[in-house]
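Researcher: For the annotation table, I need structure tokens for Thioredoxin family protein. Please keep the output clean. Sequence:
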Amino acid sequence: MIPSHRKSTLPSLSALALAVAVLSLGACKQPQTPARDDNPAATTDAKPAPAPVVDTKPADAKPADAPPADAAGDTPELRIATIDGKTYDLGERRGRWVVVNFWATWCAPCIKEMPELSALDTMRDHIEVIGLAYEEIELADMQAFLKKHPVSYPIAILDVADPPKAFDTPRGLPMTYLIGPDGKVAEKFLGPVDAKKIEAAIAKASAQVAVPKA
């Protein structure tokens, strides 16, 4: 039998577990090793160790100290071989909106958004998608994965030790860039995206271009 003074703590523990589960959803990140306390014998005048900083920003928020998405240049360059043996050149896509999607086969949110990105690529003539697999994976394994999760857009496997310099190194997956018809970065998303988010970003960017400068 659980003592009455301990029973009252059960609801709060359940609520805490639920909150932890909710916070775990979102962009995929590599697990980090927690800091160790190598000085268990604390003294009365010793300063307490600072509490770890927890990133509580929304998935698509930009950190305050992050460089602009197109910091490597006014128009990011991307020329890369795709798994079908072709070459994808972002510079040849002027006049179209391009969704550059960093993803990985081990990232559940990435896999979940793939069908909608594929539909967006197929159904919108002015939008196309390029998938950049940010992981160490053999070509045969990627081809086998795509047989189970087919998409209409081209896929390229990145060298994680030397990712495209025109884009920020992903700090979480999926990470998606929306490139405008002028070749410039119109929007950047960290975390899952869908057709609604992409089209809303396109409408917003288009409206800003249409407004004449004072």
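Researcher: And a one-line annotation?
Model: The radius of gyration is 22 Å.
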